[in-house]
Design brief:
The chain is mainly beta and 113 residues long. 0% of the residues lie in helices and 49% in strands. It is built from no helices and 11 strands. The chain has strands at 4-7, 10-12, 18-24, 34-39, 46-51, 57-59, 67-72, 77-82, 91-97, 102-103, 107-111. Strands 2, 4, 5, 6, 9, 10 and 11 form a 7-stranded mixed β-sheet that branches. A hairpin with a 5-residue loop joins β5 (46-51) and β6 (57-59).
Length: 113
């Protein structure tokens, strides 16, 4: 069974950076879109970023200019580089495979002084 596993979350001060990774257990990345979503306490899960098979990217307005997304198909990994973090970025971050509709279990990101 194919799985997605996120890592890299943690506690960081405002203005700091974190790099999240998403690893797939099988060779499923291919040409498909890969996504990052997040869910803050008491809120709905929301879109954060997407990367297409050719490397094209899209970001939520709230993270544009601060977050970047990248992929390594050979290693079946997707990364989310998060810079200039704000307290409102605090959430559980999830990796999502668009075509197979697979979700990871999430990694907690907490931005606090």
């Amino acid at each position: 069974q194919v799985q997605l596993v996120e890592s890299g979350g943690g506690l960081v001060q405002p203005g700091g950076s974190l790099r999240l990774s998403c690893a797939a257990s099988g060779s499923i990345f291919g040409p498909y879109n890969m996504y990052w979503y997040r869910q803050a306490p008491g809120k709905q899960r929301e879109f954060v970023a997407r990367i297409g098979g050719s490397g094209d990217t899209k970001f939520a307005d709230s993270v544009k200019g601060r977050f970047t997304i990248s992929r390594d198909n050979a290693k079946n990994t997707v990364h989310l580089q998060m810079d200039s973090l704000k307290p409102e970025d605090t959430a559980v971050y999830y990796c999502h495979h668009g075509a197979y509709n697979i979700w990871g279990r999430g990694t907690q990101v907490t931005v606090s002084s």
